[in-house]
Write a structure and sequence with these properties.
alpha/beta; TIM Barrel; 2 domains
């Protein structure tokens, strides 16, 4: 093995019970594990020798037995609007991307990945063109947040997290929900669950399962079409769970959680933006009591042939939906010139057009 340190088990990414079990053979009691949990996540201190509320022998035993490795990340590209795309390196040498964004209202949002690549192959998403390598572990997911928090010196400042990076979050259900528990734990990252949004292409059983979780994020469902024929073409997942089945799962979510969710709708010129599409979209959103987030397609010349509608057309669509009583916003994506916008995250070969 090139790095002998990698042979030691990694504590980073363990939840409270698993951390207590890992440390128990070293003589650690439950309160020691709770202290270690706070040091790793809340305080961001990864050297056990600095855990001053542990006895020196215990600190040494932890350092000798385990590693605390959230992975490494470095700023990869910075957009003109200040958006920063990070390249995150895993212990086995794979890379994933995450994004730091500040919106016009000064809200800070971190966009994190849940997989290396994606298996669901949505036709308008660059990540899907990578194919699927593997799921990320809980530690690798939380590590993206940890790295950006340190690099941007966020400290105790509030920020939002969206699981909208590389991969389908609900395809990696157990690791993502464990990450959410660490991120929302007061002794972890201390975020409100309402600051975390999981975006899914529509894995119906996982949506229904997520509705029953004791710690639930906000939910965003990528709709992107108003007929099965178009959605089948754009999103192969629709061939397994069609619009009717997806909408039924969304109704279950609302009935179970009482939390309103968001439909995301990537606008593709000439594909899903007709007047008839807009009328169907309004009916779907009103039936589901959903908010609607319109996302003009972020072009990737040389890779994806789709185009966004004109800005005027986007605004007319927004106005028409709002006129029907649908709460509608437009996500004018940030970071496009750094290929950090929605649907643009992918590890392309060297020399690829950018």
């Amino acid at each position: 093995m090139d790095n002998p340190d990698q042979a030691r088990p990694n504590l980073f990414g363990l939840e409270r019970e698993a951390l207590a079990e890992a440390l128990e053979p070293l003589g650690a009691r439950r309160f020691h594990a709770d202290q270690a949990y706070r040091w790793m996540y809340a305080r961001g201190v990864r050297d056990p020798s600095a855990w001053t509320d542990h006895a020196v022998p215990l600190r040494g035993a932890i350092a000798a037995t385990f590693r605390i490795d959230p992975g490494t990340a470095s700023p990869h590209r910075t957009a003109d609007d200040g958006t920063v795309k990070y390249r995150n390196r895993t212990a086995d040498g794979l890379d994933v991307e995450s994004v730091y964004m500040i919106a016009e209202d000064d809200r800070t949002t971190l966009c994190v990945s849940s997989q290396v690549g994606c298996a669901l192959d949505c036709d308008f998403c660059l990540t899907g063109k990578m194919g699927f390598r593997r799921n990320l572990s809980t530690g690798e997911i939380v590590g993206q947040v940890d790295a950006i928090r340190d690099d941007q010196d966020l400290g105790g400042r509030p920020f939002n997290i969206v699981f909208m990076g590389m991969g389908e979050p609900l395809h990696n259900y157990d690791a993502v929900t464990a990450a959410i528990r660490i991120l929302t734990d007061p002794d972890g990252f201390g975020l409100s669950r309402r600051r975390i949004t999981v975006s899914t292409v529509g894995l119906v059983p996982a949506i229904e399962r997520l509705a029953a979780e004791p710690v639930r994020p906000r939910l965003a469902v990528s709709l992107n079409a108003t007929t099965d024929a178009v959605r089948d073409r754009l999103m192969p997942v629709n061939r397994k769970w069609n619009l009717a089945r997806l909408l039924a799962a969304c109704e279950t979510w609302l009935a179970t959680t009482r939390d309103r969710f968001t439909f995301e709708y990537v606008l593709l010129d000439g594909i899903n933006d007709s007047d008839a599409d807009v009328e169907r979209l309004a009916r779907i959103a009103l039936r589901a009591r959903a908010k609607l987030n319109l996302i003009p397609f972020n072009a990737v010349p040389g890779y994806l042939s789709y185009r966004p509608p004109t800005d005027d057309r986007v605004d007319r669509i927004r106005q028409r939906l709002a006129g029907r009583g649908v709460p509608t916003t437009v996500r004018w994506s940030r970071g496009r010139d750094a290929r950090a916008a929605c649907g643009q995250l992918a590890l392309l070969p060297e020399g690829a057009p950018s």
